[in-house]
From TrEMBL:
The keyword Ribosomal protein does not apply. One of its GO terms (molecular function) is tryptophan-tRNA ligase activity. The lineage of its organism: Eukaryota, Metazoa, Chordata, Craniata, Vertebrata. It comes from Rynchops niger. This is tryptophan--tRNA ligase. The gene is Wars2. Coiled coil: none annotated.
Length: 135
């Protein structure tokens, strides 16, 4: 949600891809793609954002913490980022999502959004469950 220099962003994408491959992810056995090249992520985020109420987003602790660190001038991107995360999960009809404790509330938002969408339009999205990582 913070502005990045385009050259730095491009290099970060390459570095992250290299790290993923170095960890042993085999692109012959899984899909490896750049999310920003898939417009459906942003499109679904817009649709889901139109179904998500602002008070629900304002209760997320990440919003409160980041907003405080930005002198009470939190951006719309910061507020709506959890909806984009929900779109990332729901777009692929994910049933189980590995998360750390710090992301449980964002997954709960994705669950709430899926349930709201399904209630309004009929069963479409599975309600994803958390797979908590243990460190």
């Amino acid at each position: 949600t913070m502005p990045k220099e385009p050259a730095v962003l491009r290099q970060n994408i390459l570095d992250t891809t290299a790290a993923i491959l170095a960890c042993g992810i085999d692109p012959k056995k899984c899909f490896l793609f750049r999310q920003s090249l898939v417009p459906e992520h942003a499109e679904l985020a817009w649709i889901l954002g139109c179904l998500t109420n602002v008070p629900r987003l304002l209760r997320l602790p990440q919003w409160k913490m980041k907003r405080a660190s930005q002198n009470n001038e939190g951006t719309v991107g910061l507020l709506t980022y959890p909806v984009l995360q929900a779109a990332d999960i729901l777009l692929y009809k994910s049933t189980h999502v590995p998360v750390g404790e710090d992301q449980v509330l964002h997954l709960e938002l994705a669950q709430d959004i899926a349930q709201h969408f399904n209630k309004k339009y009929g069963e479409f999205f599975p309600v994803p469950r958390a797979i908590l990582s243990e460190l």
